[in-house]
Write a structure and sequence with these properties.
334 residues, mainly beta, Immunoglobulin-like, five-stranded antiparallel sheet, 28 strands, rod-shaped
């Protein structure tokens, strides 16, 4: 009698072990994963098995249970959840983002337990940017851009400045899950155009571009004469002095000569038929009325005497020596 009991117990244990081992080999295969909001998904068992009873749950919430041909759907899933009473496949319709989670099926006939994570994702629409402040002075302000969507879930963000991807640095920071771009101490190179690209497993979207207006300068001033590197010219030349300054908004330019302002403004100062006495330092002064900053550049121009005058000065001693300079001449014109 004891021997028969032992044999029966072994059979029961082997049957239970066979059930547990078989459940390890069973997987849940969603008809789509990730699934789209509003769609219908079916969670099937693979390999296919015949289940006489069981239940489905997501996380700690029961969805439904069945026994033979009878099934009961729990509140919250009525009208959109059903099960195949033979295969145990769960069909769930009108999906929402909140339906994402770990789905589990359990059965006692045969003994089975399996799970899968289902991700329900909402498509992205209407990616927009909002700039907290668009008009700033270089190195005196922080720029902040927020990226948002009208619809979408499981979002990933990428920021672009023109054709280059924006990466984090000491000055560039990403916050709120990378949906916000924060630029500390903006520079003239941070003006943009910026755009935000948003992704999720089923869709993507891109915002329109925005720009910062960054006021800077004047600085990096340059002064050229007749477009040449030289600053020495013969008398009688016409000179065109060009003054350039990096500035936003464009700087107001004023010209000076030997430390005194002259009646000339703008990027160009023109002198015609210059004389030797016009040699000296010429300055271009720049002012930005937005940054309230000044800058200047100076170049020293040398005007040589005319060749005719130089020849006369050189020939004068020779003329005196040769007697060409006669006493009958009342004057000698250079």
């Amino acid at each position: 009698m004891a021997q028969r009991t032992c044999r029966a117990s072994i059979i029961v244990i082997l049957t239970l072990l066979q059930g547990f081992l078989s459940c390890d080999a069973v997987e849940i295969q969603p008809s789509m994963n990730p699934a789209v909001v509003g769609s219908t998904v079916t969670l099937s068992l693979s390999p296919s098995v015949t289940l006489a009873s069981g239940n489905w749950a997501v996380e700690e919430t029961f969805i439904l249970t069945w026994l033979g041909e009878q099934q009961a759907v729990f509140p919250g899933y009525s009208g959109r959840a059903s099960v195949s009473v033979t295969s145990g496949a769960l069909t769930l319709s009108a999906l929402t983002v909140s339906d994402s989670g770990l789905y589990q099926v359990q059965s006692g006939d045969p003994l089975l337990k399996a799970s899968v994570y289902l991700n329900v994702v909402e498509p992205i629409s209407n990616v927009t940017l909002r700039v907290s402040r668009s008009d700033m002075i270089e190195h005196q302000a922080t720029g902040l851009i927020n990226c948002s969507v009208s619809t979408g879930s499981s979002l990933s963000f990428r920021w672009m400045n023109g054709s280059s991807e924006v990466t984090a640095t000491d000055r560039v920071q990403f916050t709120d899950g990378n949906s916000s771009l924060n630029i500390v101490s903006v520079s003239r190179f941070d003006s943009g155009p910026f755009r935000c690209e948003v992704f999720n497993p089923i869709s993507n979207g891109t915002s329109d571009s925005v720009n910062f207006t960054v006021s800077y300068g004047p600085d990096n001033m340059r002064l050229t004469v007749n477009g040449l590197n030289t600053t020495a010219f013969p008398a009688g030349s016409n000179l065109s002095m060009l003054c350039l300054a990096e500035s936003n908004p464009p700087a107001q330019l004023q010209w000076g000569f030997r430390g005194n302002l002259v009646n000339a403004t703008g990027t160009m100062l023109e002198l015609f038929h210059v004389r030797a006495e016009q040699s000296g330092p010429y300055s271009c002064l720049a002012f930005n009325n937005r940054t309230n900053l000044y800058s200047n550049v100076t170049t020293h121009i040398t005007i040589s005497r005319s060749q005719q005058l130089q020849s006369n000065v050189f020939l004068l001693p020779l003329l005196l020596l040769t007697g060409f300079f006669s006493g009958n001449c009342d004057y000698f014109s250079l």
